[in-house]
Amino acid sequence: VVNTDDGPRALTLEDYLNGNFQYKTFFPYWVSDNEYLHQSAEDDIILYNVEINYATTIMTNSTMKQVNASNYVMSSDQYFIALESNYSKLWRYSYTASYHIYDLINGGFVTENQLPHKIQYISWSPVGHKLVYVYQNNIYLKQSPREPPIKITSDGKQNEIFNGIPDWVYEEEMLATKYALWWSPSGRYLAYVQFNDSDIPVIEYSYFGEDQYPRKITIPYPKAGAKNPTVKVFVVDTIYSEAFGPKEVPVPAIIASSDHYFTWLTWVTDTRICVQWLKRIQNFSVLAICDFKEHSNTWDCPQNQQHIEESQTGWAGGFFVSAPYFTSDSSSYYKIFSDKNGYKHIHYINGSVENAIQVTSGEWEAIYIFRVTNDAIFYSSNEFEGYPGRRNIYKISIGSKPMRKQCITCNLRKERCQYYTARFSERSKYYALICYGPGIPISTLFENRGDRELRVLEDNWELQSALQQISLPKEEINKLEVDGITLWYKMLLPPQFDRSKKYPLLIQVYGGPCSQNVKETFSISWITYLASKEGIIVALVDGRGTAYRGDKILHAVYRRLGVYEVEDQISAVKKFIEMGFIDEKRIAIWGWSYGGYVTSLALGSGSGVFKCGMAVAPVSSWEYYASIYTERFMGLPIKSDNLEHYK
To answer: How far out from the chain centre does Cα 225 lie?
Structure first.
C-alpha cells in the first residue's frame, strides 16, 4: 500500500491476512516456585530464576533442530526434557506428535527404549521423572525414560475404546482438553477415564488432501437424543501397576441409575480423589469425594461426601460445571456456582453444600479461581465498574476476619488493561499477569508478597510503534435498554467518524449460550479492517443467553434456542438506527457456527432491518448436532421432553 502523505494510513485487508499487527503474550512455564522456562528469540530454552534474577541456557536451538522440535516439556526434577516434533492436528485440542527425550544431566538423547511416533498425549509425573503416554488409545507407563514401557491398558481401539484421552464429543463439548488422565500429587497413582464409543453411530466425510484419492474420515458422533459414550474412571498404582491393575472409582448411585457424563477429576491427596458427574439432563451434578481403602484395595465414595449442584432455571454450571479448589485440610474446598440471586459466586464448602458459606456476592460474577493458598484466594471477576466484559484479578485474604478483598489489577494500568489472566508459580510465591486489553497487551511478573511488580515480560513495544502509522477505528463499549433487558455492545467507528453522516453497519454475531463477544480485549481483525479502510461501522451485541450477567439472562434461552438471541440482535439494530448515523439501506449481519445460525434466523425473521447476511457453517437443525452441547440447552428431542422446540 503506497502511503502518499506522511499521516497514518488505513489498515488494509493484506495487513490483516498477513498478520502484520499481531501482539505477543508471555506465559511463564513455571517449573518450581521461583523458576520458569521460556524460549529466547533465538529459540534456545532458558531457565530463569526469579529469586536471583539469573538466566541459564539449558538447551540451545541446535539441539532442538536435531529433531526438528517445535515444543518441549521438562520432567519435574529437571533431569530430562521431552522434545516434541511431527505435530499433526486432529480436533480442536488433540494432536499426535513424536517425542525425543534429552538427558539434561549427562547430555545427549536417550536412545534406549525410544518412544513410538504418533503419540496422542504425554505427561511427566509431578515428582521425579516417571512418564506416561497414550499411544493408539492405550496408556503406557515408564518408570524412567530409559526403561521399557509398562502397558497399563490393552483394550484401546480406534474410534471405539479411548483410554486416557477423550473421544471427539468429550473433547469438544465437555473437557476442552486433549487428555483424560491425571497424576496424584506424589506421582504414585494415575487416574484415567475410559470412553466407550463402540455403540455410537458414526458420521463419515471425504478428506481431499495431498493424495490422488480422498481419504474417508469416520467419527463416532452422538447426536441429540442418540446413544452416548459410556465412561469409567480408573486409578492405577504406578509402583505396583502389574500386580494390582487399575481399580474403578464407583459412580454415585443417584448418577449411575440413568445416562450420565463424567465432567472432571481433581486429586486431593494421594489417597483422596474428587470426581464430578452430571446427569444426561444437565441440570443435576454430583461432586463425589472418594477415598482409597487399603485393606480392600478399593475406592469408596460415601454418600455423605457426595455434593449435589442443581439448577432450577437451566443447566448446571456455566459452559462447564466448575472445578473445586481444595484447602490444605484436604476436605473443605472453594467452588464457583450460582447463588440464590442467580449470580455465579465463590462458595466455601466444608461438609455440606447446604451449609456453604458465600465468599463473594453482588450483581456481577466470579469467573475463575486461579489459586487457593493457606491465606488467600486469587480469582477473576467482572465486578469492576460494572462492565461484564472485563476480567480483573482479585485477592481475598482468608486468614483475616472479616475477609479482606483487594483488586490487584483494577487500577494497575487502568486505561490500557481491564482484561487479565494469571499464571502462578508452584507454591504461589510469584505470578505473571497477562493483560489482553483494551489497549495493547502487556505481560508482567509479580511477587505475591505485597503484590509488587518485578518486571515487564512483554510490552509489545514494536507493535505499539508500528500502529502509530495506522489509523485504527475507535472502539466504544456501552449498553442499551430494551424492554427491561440490558444489551451490551461494542461498536467500531471509522477513524474520521462524523455523527452527522450516515454509515453502513455490519453486525458480527455469535450469540451462543454462555458466550461473550463484548469484551475489553485488543485485536486487529477483519472487522478492524472493515472499519478502518472501508468506513463501515461494525457492532457486536451480547443479548439474552450470553454469559457472566447472571442466570436470568443466561437461562433465558433454555429449551428455546434461536428465539431471544435473534430478537435481541434485531432490537439492538433498531436502537443503533435511532442514534442517527446508520444508513438503513446498508445494514448486514454475519456470523460463524452459532453466529451463522443466528444470522440465518435473523435474515428469515421478516424484520426487514438486514439487507444481506453471511452465515458460515450454521447449525441447520439441532437434531443433527452433538448430544452434549445440544441437550445442555435444549433437553431431549422426544415428545415427552422438548421435541416441539427442536422443530
So the answer is: 26
Exposed/middle/buried for residue 586 (C-beta within 10 Å: 0-12, 13-18, 19+): middle
Q: Is the pLDDT assigned to residue 4 strictly greater than 70? A: no
Q: Is residue 211 part of a domain?
A: no
> What domain range is 607 assigned to?
472-616
pLDDT, mean over the chain: 97
At 401 the pLDDT is 75
Bond prior to 402 in cis (omega within 30° of 0)? yes
* 226 assigned to some structural domain: no
pLDDT single digits (tens) 351-379: 999 999 999 999 999 999 999 999 999 99
pLDDT (tens digit per residue) in 576-596: 999 999 999 999 999 999 999
Verdict on whether the full-model pTM lies above 0.85: yes
Give me 536's grid cell: 463501515
Largest CA distance in the chain: 83
> What is the Cα–Cα distance from 589 to 605, expressed in whole angstroms?
13
User: How many domains, in total, are found in the chain?
Assistant: 1
User: Which residues, 6+ apart, have CB-to-CB distance to 78 below 8 Å?
Assistant: 31, 47, 104
Specify whether the CB–CB gap between 168 and 180 falls below 8 A: no
Peptide bond before residue 513 is cis, with ω within 30 degrees of 0: no
pLDDT at 611 over 80: yes
- Does residue 159 lie in a domain region? no
Residue 564, domain CATH: 3.40.50.1820
What DSSP element (H or E) covers 563?
A: none
* Burial call 71-101: b when 16+ CB within 10 Å, e when fewer: ebbbbbebbbbbbbbbeeeeeeebbbbbbbb
479 located within any domain: yes
Q: Please tell me the distance from the alpha carbon of residue 383 to that of residue 367, in angstroms, as a whole number.
A: 10
Alpha-carbon distance of 433 to 447, in angstroms, equals 11
